[in-house]
C-alpha cells in the first residue's frame, strides 16, 4: 500500500494545474542540501507531477559521524546517483554546484555565532563545522547567480536559541540573508494541526531574492496583510487574522559580531521571534498565531499495516510490558549531581499508554527503533496485543511512500524517519511557490 497525497485539490487548483500542463515552461532548477532520505525532493516531485516541475539538479548528503552513509544510500536507491554528492559540503567547491533557482534543505540547529563582521573585507567567519555558513557560502559565492528562492526547515528551537540570548541565532541568519538582499518569511508549523498524521513542530523558512515578485509582495504590503493573507505561508497554511497591535517589530543590526555579543542580552529569557514573521531590509515583524483549519484530520490508526504484516519482534510480551509501563508512567527519583554533590528530585508525569489510535501520532524520534522499553517510542494496542510501530508505519506518518527506507536495518530506518520531515508540508509550500512565480 502506498499512501497518496493527503491533500485533495479543489477546483481552482485543478484548473491551475491543467493550465500549467498546457503551458509548461522551464522547470524550477533546485538543489537539495542536507538531503537525508529526500523528504524535500519527494514533496516537490509530488507537486511536479501536477504542474510545471521542480528539477533536482544536484543534491548533497553527508553524515560525519558514521562510516556507512545510510541516508545517502537510501537517497540514491530511490532517486539514483546522478548529480548526487556524498561528501562533506564544506569540501565542495561552489563552482561545482550547478546554478539553480531554488535551494532547499533541513540544516542542523547549531551555534551560529561569528568571529568577524560582514563589514570586514574578509567577510564573515562562522564557527567551524556549522552548516548554516555552508548555505551562506553558496549564496555569497554564486553572486548574481545565487538562487532566487530558499526553502529551509529546522527545529522550532532555532527561534529561541541559545538559552542565554533567546533569538540570537535566528537573528544572525536573518541579518546575514538581509545582507545578501533576501526577504525572509518564517512559520512554525505543527503538521497535525493541518490534517497531517504526526504532531511534529518545525520552523519553515522561505527567502526571496530582491527583484522577485515575492520580494515585491513583502515590500509593498503591510504586516497584517503579509502575515494573515498574502504571504506564502498565510496562503499555504491559513491562520486567523492578526491584529496590528499584536505584531512585534524591530530593526536588526547589520553587524553580525554585534548580534553575536549583544542580541537580547537585556531580556535573555524573552522570546524575540514568535510563531510567524517576516524580515525585509533588516526590519522584522513577528506574532503569535491561531491556526485556521477546517478540513479533515488524519489519525494514527489510519496508517497502521495489517497485523499479518507485523513481525513477532515488534510485539511486547508480558514481562517487557511492565518495563514499558514504568517508562511511560509518572515517577519521582532522588538524584545527586556528580559534580556538586547536590541532591535533588527528578520528576516526570505519565504519558498516554498505549498511543491513541484516534489522534495524530506523537513526534517520531531518532531513537524510535529497537526493542528496549522507552518513554518516547510509540506503542499501539491492536487485537489485544501491544506492539511497536514498524518502519512502514513510521514512513507513512511522515507521508513517505511505503518502504522508502528499505535496505537498511529496522532500527536505522526508524532513525532516518526520526530525522525526516513531513512531506505534506513541502507539498503545500511547493504548490504555492509555483503559483506565485
What distinguishing features does this structure have?
2 domains, 13 helices, two-stranded antiparallel ribbon, Rossmann fold
Outline:
By secondary structure, the protein is an alpha/beta fold.
Provide structural commentary.
- The chain is an alpha/beta fold and 437 residues long.
- It has 2 domains: 11-295 and 422-436, 3-Layer(aba) Sandwich (Rossmann fold); 305-356 and 365-409, no CATH class.
- It is built from 13 helices and 14 strands.
- The protein has helices spanning 11-22, 39-48, 70-79, 132-142, 168-179, 213-220, 223-230, 232-236, 256-262, 318-328, 391-397, 410-418, 423-436; strands at 28-33, 54-60, 84-85, 102-105, 149-155, 182-190, 201-209, 248-251, 276-280, 283-287, 331-336, 343-348, 379-382, 385-388.
- The strands form 3 sheets. The protein has a 10-stranded mixed β-sheet with strand order 3-2-1-4-5-7-6-9-10-8, sandwiched between helices.
- A hairpin with a 2-residue loop joins strand 9 and strand 10.
- Helix 2 packs across helix 13 (423-436).
- The two termini are 34 Å apart.
- 42% of the residues are buried.
- Mean pLDDT is 91; it is low at 1-9 and 11-24.
Amino acid at each position: 500500500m502506498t499512501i497518496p497525497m493527503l491533500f485533495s485539490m479543489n477546483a481552482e487548483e485543478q484548473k491551475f494545474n491543467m493550465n500549467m500542463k498546457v503551458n509548461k515552461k522551464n522547470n524550477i532548477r533546485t538543489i537539495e542540501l542536507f538531503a537525508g532520505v529526500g523528504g524535500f525532493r519527494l514533496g516537490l516531485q509530488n507537486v511536479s507531477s501536477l504542474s510545471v516541475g521542480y528539477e533536482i539538479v544536484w543534491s548533497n548528503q553527508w553524515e560525519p559521524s558514521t562510516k556507512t552513509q545510510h541516508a545517502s544510500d537510501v537517497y540514491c536507491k530511490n532517486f539514483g546517483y546522478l548529480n548526487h554528492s556524498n561528501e562533506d559540503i564544506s569540501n565542495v567547491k561552489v563552482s561545482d554546484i550547478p546554478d539553480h533557482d531554488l535551494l532547499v534543505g533541513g540544516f542542523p540547529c547549531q551555534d551560529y555565532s561569528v568571529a568577524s563582521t560582514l563589514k570586514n573585507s574578509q567577510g564573515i567567519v562562522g564557527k567551524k563545522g556549522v552548516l548554516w555558513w555552508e548555505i551562506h557560502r553558496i549564496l555569497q559565492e554564486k553572486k548574481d547567480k545565487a538562487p532566487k528562492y530558499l526553502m529551509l526547515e529546522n527545529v522550532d528551537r532555532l527561534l529561541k536559541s541559545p538559552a542565554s540570548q533567546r533569538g540570537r541565532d535566528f537573528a544572525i541568519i536573518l541579518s546575514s540573508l538581509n545582507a545578501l538582499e533576501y526577504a525572509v518569511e518564517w512559520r512554525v508549523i505543527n503538521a497535525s494541526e493541518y490534517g497531517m498524521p504526526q504532531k511534529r513542530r518545525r520552523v519553515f523558512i522561505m527567502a526571496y531574492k530582491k527583484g522577485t515578485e515575492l520580494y515585491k509582495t513583502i515590500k509593498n504590503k503591510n504586516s497584517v496583510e503579509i502575515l494573515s493573507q498574502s504571504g506564502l505561508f498565510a496562503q499555504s497554511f491559513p491562520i486567523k487574522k492578526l491584529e496590528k497591535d499584536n505584531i512585534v517589530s524591530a530593526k536588526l543590526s547589520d553587524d553580525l559580531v554585534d548580534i553575536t555579543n549583544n542580541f537580547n542580552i537585556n531580556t535573555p529569557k524573552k522570546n524575540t521571534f514568535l510563531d510567524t514573521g517576516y524580515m525585509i531590509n533588516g526590519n522584522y515583524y513577528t506574532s503569535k498565531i491561531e491556526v485556521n483549519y477546517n478540513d479533515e484530520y488524519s489519525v494514527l490508526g489510519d496508517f497502521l499495516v495489517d497485523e499479518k504484516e507485523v513481525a513477532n519482534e515488534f510485539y511486547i510480551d508480558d514481562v517487557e510490558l511492565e518495563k514499558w509501563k514504568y517508562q511511560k508512567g509518572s515517577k519521582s527519583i532522588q538524584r545527586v549531581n556528580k559534580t556538586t554533590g547536590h541532591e535533588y528530585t527528578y520528576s516526570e508525569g505519565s504519558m498516554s499508554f498505549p498511543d491513541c489510535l484516534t489522534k495524530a501520532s506523537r513526534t517520531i524520534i531518532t531513537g524510535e527503533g529497537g526493542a528496549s522499553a522507552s518513554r518516547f517510542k510509540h506503542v499501539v494496542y491492536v487485537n489485544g496485543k501491544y506492539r511497536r510501530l514498524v518502519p512502514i508505519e513510521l514512513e507513512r506518518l511522515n507521508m513517505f511512500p511505503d518502504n522508502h527506507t528499505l535496505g537498511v536495518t529496522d532500527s536505522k530506518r526508524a532513525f532516518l524517519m526520526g530525522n525526516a520531515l513531513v512531506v505534506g508540508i513541502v507539498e503545500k509550500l511547493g504548490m504555492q511557490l509555483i503559483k506565485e512565480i
